[in-house]
Amino acid sequence: MEVKSSPHTLLEQGIQLPLMEEFYTIQGEGFHSGKAAYFIRIGGCDVGCHWCDVKESWDASLHPLTNVDEVVNNALTYPSRAVVVTGGEPSMYNLEYITTQLKNKGIQTFIETSGAYPLTGIWDWVCLSPKKTGVPLQENLKGPMSLK
Fold first, then answer.
1. Pick from 42, 47, 75: nearest CA to 57
2. What is the torsional sign of CA 128, 36, 60, 111?
3. Looking at the domain assignment, is residue 89 inside a domain?
4. What confidence tens digit (pLDDT) does each residue in 82-126 have?
5. Nearest Cα to 118, choosing from 134, 105, 107, 132?
6. Closest by alpha carbon to 33, among 130, 143, 97, 127?
7. Residue 31 belongs to a domain with what CATH number?
8. Has residue 131 been placed in a domain?
9. Please, what's the b/e burial string for 11-44 (b: 16 or more CB within 10 A of its CB; e: otherwise)?
10. What percent of the chain has pLDDT over 70?
11. SS3 category, 109
12. Does residue 122 form part of some domain?
């Protein structure tokens, strides 16, 4: 008998994520500015900053649940060994699986987050961008990070 997992379960486990876009580029800001990286933009955000430059990311239902293994394989096709996970608000999701898969492939993991949710996953660098509509959790204010 074949056991199938529901999309909701795969999302909870972080095996699938609502992918808005993924692309290879140069990090344009912060501590890692000028470094080539593969960007993974995850859909879904309830922080809702009026100045957000990616409001299209807010509604997670607009972005297809995508298998994380596929995204990791896409990142591996580029020479950089750095991935930036951004959003929306990526920390709304379980990021243990994606960061474990990336780290197993020798890829550095960076996240850009408001810090309003607990961070899951293995991060080499956290770019914290606090918002008054989603105040960072105290636990997210430690470790290698930059403040935006």
1. 42
2. negative
3. yes
4. 999 999 999 999 999 999 999 999 999 999 999 999 999 999 999
5. 134
6. 127
7. 3.20.20.70
8. yes
9. beebbbbbbbebeeeebeebebeeeebbbbbbbb
10. 97
11. strand
12. yes
Task: Specify if 2 maps to a domain.
Answer: no
- Helices in the chain by DSSP H: which ranges? 7-13, 68-76, 96-104
Q: To which residue do tokens 């961008």 refer?
A: 129
For 25-47, how does the pLDDT look when each residue is reduced to its tens digit (9 = 90+)?
999 888 888 999 999 999 999 88
pLDDT confidence tier of residue 1, bands split at 50, 70 and 90: very low
Q: Which residues form the domain of 143?
A: 7-147
Total tally of structural domains belonging to the chain: 1
- What pTM, to 2 d.p., does this model score? 0.91
Rounded Cα–Cα distance for residues 2 and 54 (Å): 40
Q: Are strands 65-67 and 145-147 parallel, antiparallel or unpaired?
A: unpaired
> What is the Cα–Cα distance from 51 to 132, expressed in whole angstroms?
12
